[in-house]
Amino acid sequence: MTTALHTPAATRSTPDPMRQRARIAGVLYVLTFVSIPTLTLYKPVKDDVGAFLLGAGSDTGVMVGALSEVIIGLAGISTAVVLFPVLKRQNSSAALGVVAARLVETTLILVGVVSLLVLVTLRDDVVGTAGTDPASLLTTGHTLVAAYTWTFLLSQSLMPVFVDLLLGYLLYRSGLVPRVLPLIAFVGAPLLLLSDIAIFFGVYENVSPVALLAAVPVAVFEFSFGIYLIVKGFKPAAVAALQARQALR
After folding, report:
1. DSSP string for residues in 95-132
2. From CA 79, how far away is CA 28, in angstroms rounded?
3. From the CA atom positions of the chain, what is the Rg in Å?
4. Tens of pLDDT along 188-226?
5. What pTM did the predictor assign?
6. How many Å apart are CA 128 and CA 240, to the nearest integer?
7. Where are the alpha helices (DSSP H) in the chain?
8. 202 to each of 153, 195, 198, 205, 208, how far by Cα in Å?
9. How far apart are CA 18 and CA 240, in angstroms?
10. Rounded Cα distance, 215 and 210, in Å
11. CA distances from 242 to 68, 92, 123, 125, 180 (A)
12. Nearest to 159 by CA among 83, 229, 79, 42
């Protein structure tokens, strides 16, 4: 009588690609929250750009903040790319809309980052050189800060409205995650949109307590969604239903 030999390769379970995809997307979603400290890191520049240009304080905080925004921009578009093969099984147009909105968001984030990096270059390489006009530098500094402020509104505040509405729709219809999560997005996205409109027309600033409060539901949705994907992944029954639907097409 012979006994079958069980090798590690024979007993090792095959990794679930859908579970791995969900985990990667979850990690990327959590990674998009690394930019939260920029509110503090950029404060010296926004409070008094003239003093910053003349050498007050350190530019390390601005550089760290800029790096963190590059990370969240890349992480943001990556979440859409990683989720697209799954979401398109529910609705390819809406899934493509998520990718497009994330791409616009990332592009605008990088434009804002460049504005602040140019400000640092002015401070380090131009201010104090012979023939420099302080008034012109101050005007340029205010222009760069204003450019960052508007690109921040359009990128990290307005674009998430469209991303989360489309994503919420896809998640709710597919049942890939508990439906309470997309419901949070359905509440948070319109609230954030109203706040963005108020900021656009000068009702209050984008760093005011009201603006920060309006952004909380969207932040709760995105962070909870990321954590859920890391811990639980997509619901197997919903994945199977989407796969069956795709097979019939």
Report:
1. HHHHHHHHHHHHHHHHHHHHHHHHHHHIIIIITTSTT-
2. 6
3. 23
4. 999 999 999 999 999 999 889 999 999 999 999 999 999
5. 0.89
6. 65
7. 8-11, 17-31, 38-41, 43-47, 49-53, 60-87, 92-121, 134-152, 159-174, 180-200, 209-231, 236-248
8. 12, 11, 6, 7, 11
9. 11
10. 9
11. 36, 12, 55, 56, 20
12. 79
Q: Which two tokens stand for residue 136?
A: 């012109």
Q: Is the pLDDT of residue 50 over 60?
A: yes
CA gap 94, 87 in Å, rounded: 8
Residue 98's closest CA among 75, 74, 81, 110? Answer: 81
pLDDT tier at 12, thresholds 50, 70, 90? low
Supply φ then ψ for residue 129, to 5 degrees.
Answer: -80, 160
Per-residue pLDDT of 98-123, as tens digits, reads: 999 999 999 999 999 999 999 999 88
Closest CA to 205 of 32, 39, 38: 39
Question: Residue holding tokens 């791409």?
Answer: 103
